[in-house]
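Hey, I'm writing a tutorial for new members on how sequence and structure tokens pair up, and I'd like a real worked example in the thread rather than a made-up one. If someone can provide the structure for the chain below, I'll link this post from the tutorial.
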Amino acid sequence: MYLLSKFDSLLTTKTQVGGKAYNLAKLEKCRVNTPDWFCITSDYFQTLVDQNEVLKNLIAQYTQLEFIDDLKALIEKIHAEINKCEISIIDDVMERINPDIHYAIRSSAADEDGSHFSFAGQLESFLYVQGKERIEAAIRNCFKSNFSLTALTYRFKNQIHQSTPKMAVIIQEMIDPEKSGVLFTANPINGYRDEMLISANYGQGEGVVSGECNTDEYTINDRGIIKDEIREKDFKIIADYDNKTTKKVEVTGSDINSSVLTHAEIIELNKLALEILALKKKPQDIEFCFQNGEIYIVQTRDITSLPMDKREEFANVFDNSNIQESFNGVTTPLTFSYASKMYYKVYHQLLGLTGLSEEELKKHEKRHKNMIALIEGRVFYNIQSWYKGLLLLPSFKQSKGDMEKMMGITDPVDFIEDKDLPFCERLKMLPGLIKTFGSLLWYFSKIDKVVADFMSGFYEVYDEIDFSKLNRLNLTQLYELTEELDQKITSKWHAPLINDFYVMMMNGKMYRWMEKLAVENADITLGNLLSGEHDIASTQPTKELLKISDEIKKSDQDFKDQFLKLENSKVMDFFYINNKAIFELCQKYIENYGDRTIGELKLESLSLRENPDFLINILKNYVIKESLSYESFIANELELRESEEAKIAPIVKKKLSSFARKRFYKDLSKLRKAIRYRENTRLLRTKSFGISRQIYREMGNQLANFNLISAPEDIFFLTLSEIEELKDGRIVQTSLKELISLRKSEYESYEDEEPGHHFKTFGFVHAGNKFIYEGNTNLDHDGALKGIGCYPGHITGEVALLFKPDDGIDVNDKILCTVRTDPGWAPLFPSIKGLLVEKGSTLSHSAVIARELKIPTIVGVPGITKIVENGQEIEMDCEKGLINLLQENQE
């Protein structure tokens, strides 16, 4: 049966009647008015193809096409063959036709008006068709439109051309409407699914759909009409019965500026649309018209594409300017889940110390679980979570600015603001604010003891661990050890966090002092004043390596030559055989600082215990550079600080009162101490991650022995919760090898392209958002690149572009340019001429170390690693934070 009524079409398949007819048939369930129709099924057109071998072969060629350029010639041949086909069904069609009525002959392809592909405007419809000859021609032309250049190109580009396109044809009674339009059940302009948009004009809907005529637009939601735009209607499309087509005529009289639809008509359309939406269960694009006061639905189709709903209430902002120092590059699922748990526990713990009740703490759980995010393998701060935490403190605006400086956020978020509450509400909140802030101030006043107690408590636990015995524990015991350490170490991690807040507030305070003193370059001045801390953990590894380097330099030339020529993997054995004292120094270094390596907070990173190559490379760099020594390093430590103190002293004396001067120097001293504590506690954080790294590596060994994973390091592609679920029998997928293989493939793809350092998303983060930085690289008025100067110096040199400190690129006496650094990079710094870092702030690790090592440094230059090339000459004015490109890469 090749002809089906609209009711019969409801009982068949979309493949047989096409998307347009299938959707119309479904409308019968809503009992909406539709102009009467029937259809010719796709089976009929398939018989035409089957009866014509030439046509069948041509269509087969199309399904196998690889290049779109070959389409045009092929289409001409297909159309020529369709023209030869006899439309044998025409007499059966005419039996259902009322000769006094005009008809619309509409294409209805099987893959049209679906959930994924709409084919909007791609296939033909023919209006006001009457008479056997014209109806037959329209049917043939519908069949041909299935093989038009636009339709076939659409299929080809969407990769749906591999099968024969199936076509049905709708034959529908024409009505002569007074007004027509399109209703979108989701707003196609802004993506709001809770808004509908109606576009309407007088006459036929062709003028609305084609965009040929001006239309009125109405935006409605559950509350009613929220917006209407009544435009000047110039033309409308109406029936041209004489020529069996449509014609464009002027709109006249009061209709020109009157609303096309009445309020009652809009409400009725909204009601009908909701019924259709309930039936279809997906946003709809509905064509309607009014005749004699009755609404007719001409067709409905799924909306296959909506823009992102960008209401601020659904916004998220992510920034990794600072956190990439801790988790550089692509980070595995285990590391992220471990870090996420750490952030949740310590921030939840900190709020608990401020005296909040359990009920109040629960309100902040969601925020604490969303302090960081993992996007395309990179760890980001979820900025809203951090800003919202600041709402618990007085003076949100000041705290926000202080935090942005500390975190190196160059693109502040302005849609999270302190609530402008009525006086009574503010009064109600005051006790809580006083309690929270008062608790922090109490801890700040005891910061020396708080940090000292934390550090001594940490080492009590750390020194008890015998790493050599980890392989004597089974999987359950290893897991229990992680929980025990979580209880003994992580649950007491509030001290570093309190100190971080202290750093943030004191750093902000010192910037306000700089502003009061009208210092020309606050970043450089404050940076110089903060340099020269002799007891800072960040520089200790470098000092120890310089001591080892000095010992090697004291050896005879033959020993040095052999050391420099040997493969890294043989050096430790060479030391053991030829100079046990140096071997012991290296072993002691690995024992104390073995976890302070590249990507030190990433559990998947190899520590110096597993691979000491980085240590050997640094020693070779130091030995080659004769001017480097431990004594020269120590001698230079205080020089910069004393010089800057001498420069600022007369300014302080002139502009500040005696009392203010005391406060200034006291605040500076507090900030210096807080930064020293921060760097020292970060070494403990590194050691804490190092403990976990070794435990999880041993777990990986044992999981591989059980054949659950392919290799020990594959454990890093599982999450903490998956490991726990594996232990308890709650894991939903035990084919871990396949899961890990899929994740490894995904994460490898992230290595090639890095997301922007700062971006905004809306709704579900991974649903349709693009992770692109939309700001601009900073330029000064002369076109030089601009960042934050951290240590003064005006230098010219060759760029060594490095993305990993073990890339093997020679950095001696070159300007090291990279995306970000972590403490594991520090040993490279003494041998370089200058440092240029894409991310970071004056308080980031690279800035702190550069000041201690007196390296001219600029940080916070977005996109710099994509602008400069390896080997390119550049000029750095580090006092002003300017970079000039002097020449193209000569390599």
